[in-house]
Amino acid sequence: MGISDLRSEADFHDFLRQSADRPVLLFKHSTRCPLSAAALQEFEAYARSAEGVPCARVLVIEQRPLSGFIAEAAGVRHESPQAILFRNGRAVWSASHQAVTREALARASAGE
Fold first, then answer.
1. CA distance 52 to 54
2. What DSSP assignment string belongs to 47-69?
3. Which of 41, 46, 80, 91 has a beta carbon 3.0–4.6 Å from 74's, enabling a disulfide?
């Protein structure tokens, strides 16, 4: 499926609409943080193998207002790196820093 880059509130709303039918996974990435780079590798590895789970990324430094908007809309305190899983338009799971692993993303997406 690949990873979509979200650049606007409209992009986020379009992405979130997909969660009515299936889980969707969002990754908040800091382009200046080595820890975030490692978590991004885990997210990308998961996204390559994820069947039926749309994945998106927000660059938190470059898209700071959007990142804040997502935190508020999701009701999830902003962290980066951070993965947030949405179902039916609601954040149902999140992880940050070293907890963002392909295994954790797969378990969360499967509803475990």
1. 6
2. HHH-SS--EEEEETTTTHHHHHH
3. 91
Rounded-to-integer distance, Cα 79 and Cα 100, Å: 12
Whether residue 110 is predicted with pLDDT greater than 80 in this model: the reply is: yes
Which CATH number covers residue 61? 3.40.30.10
pLDDT band of residue 30 (cuts 50, 70, 90) is very high
Is the pTM value of this prediction over 0.85?
yes
Segments forming the whole domain that contains residue 11: 3-109
11 exposure class (CB count in 10 Å sphere: 0-12, 13-18, 19+) = middle
- How many folded domains does the chain comprise? 1
